[in-house]
């Protein structure tokens, strides 16, 4: 059983690492960003509400996120454990998650915190491409798909996210520093924080994470 949270600034590689960690531990990868983007695409009531916040690089209100997370955690695959990517993102979300887990009588195993400096993040995000169908992440220089514009995994269209423009990215950093960075202290107090300096490519970072988790 493995129950993990993956913290880190926009573009840190949360999505990239989540795919590998979820496979390693055979647990579902739950990205609130991916779930929101799927809702925006399908124009659901949640998607319609969330779109403006996401396009501006702001956070979607906590109440909407908590409804989404509660529904997702109730699905049977979460009995095997889970890996949250991009959730929680505010102290109220972390407190609400603690209450849900306490009610269920379960505990987190580790909170992985990926650290990368801002210049590197900006390069990663403006070069990022994503599969519209399965969400697999790519980078035009560091991790291009084998065939340009086509996902290696599912053959879907590889595109640039609407919130990956330089201006929105800068706002996402600001929002991260103000609202999400305090979670580092929050989880450090629980003794479950696993800091990872993102040195090297995706595979090097993955190996560093597994070394720490298995230590
Ligand atoms: P979300 O989708 O979570 O975006 P984010 O946190 O800004 O993070 P990203 O997905 O941009 O980056 P990542 O860390 O996954 O990096 P990736 O692996 O792609 O959220 C989007 C929006 O949804 C938010 O702004 C908000 O509005 C809303 N939202 C979501 N969750 C919410 C919540 N809980 N509460 C409220 N609102 C919420 O990697 C980036 C690039 O770098 C890729 O191109 C990749 O190939 C490359 N790369 C990765 N690792 C490496 C490496 N080691 N070396 C070189 N390149 C690398
Ligand atoms: Mg992501």
Please provide a brief summary of the model:
The chain has about 220 residues and is an alpha/beta fold.
Helix content: 40-55%
Radius of gyration: 16 Å
- CATH class group: Alpha Beta
- Percent of residues in β-strands: 15-25%
Biggest sheet strand line-up:
2-3-1-4-8
Stretches with pLDDT under 50, minimum 5 residues? none
How many strands?
Answer: 8
Task: Determine the structural class based on helices, strands and strand pairing.
Answer: alpha/beta
Bound molecules: BIS(adenosine)-5'-pentaphosphate, magnesium ion
Secondary-structure element pattern, one letter each:
EHEHHHEHEHEEEHHEH
How does this structure look, described?
The radius of gyration is 16 Å and the shape is globular. Strand 5 and strand 6 form a beta hairpin. The strands form two sheets. Strands 2-3-1-4-8 form a five-stranded parallel sheet, sandwiched between helices. Helix 6 crosses helix 7. Helices cover 49% and strands 16% of the residues. The chain has nine helices and eight strands. It has a single domain, classed as Rossmann fold, CATH 3.40.50.300. It is of the alpha/beta class and 215 residues long. BIS(adenosine)-5'-pentaphosphate (AP5) binds next to helix 1, helix 2, helix 3, helix 6 and strand 6.
List its salient traits.
8 strands, 215 residues, Rossmann fold, alpha/beta
């Amino acid at each position: 059983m493995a129950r993990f949270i993956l913290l880190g600034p926009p573009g840190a590689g949360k999505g990239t690492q989540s795919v590998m960690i979820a496979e390693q531990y055979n647990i579902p990868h739950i990205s609130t960003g991916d779930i929101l983007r799927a809702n925006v695409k399908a124009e659901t009531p949640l998607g319609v509400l969330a779109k403006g916040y996401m396009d501006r690089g702001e956070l979607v209100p906590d109440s909407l996120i908590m409804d989404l997370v509660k529904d997702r955690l109730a699905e049977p695959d979460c009995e095997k454990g889970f890996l949250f990517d991009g959730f929680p993102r505010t102290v109220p979300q972390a407190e609400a998650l603690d209450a849900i887990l306490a009610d269920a009588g379960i505990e987190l195993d580790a909170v992985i915190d990926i650290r990368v400096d801002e210049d590197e993040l900006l390069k990663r995000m403006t070069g990022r491409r994503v599969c519209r169908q399965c969400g697999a992440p790519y980078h035009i220089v560091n991790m291009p798909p084998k065939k340009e514009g086509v996902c290696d995994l599912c053959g879907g269209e590889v595109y640039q996210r609407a919130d990956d423009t330089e201006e929105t990215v800068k706002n996402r950093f600001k929002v991260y520093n103000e609202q999400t960075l305090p979670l580092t202290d929050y989880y450090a107090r629980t003794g479950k924080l696993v800091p990872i300096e993102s040195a090297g490519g995706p595979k090097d970072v993955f190996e560093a994470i597994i070394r720490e988790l298995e230590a």
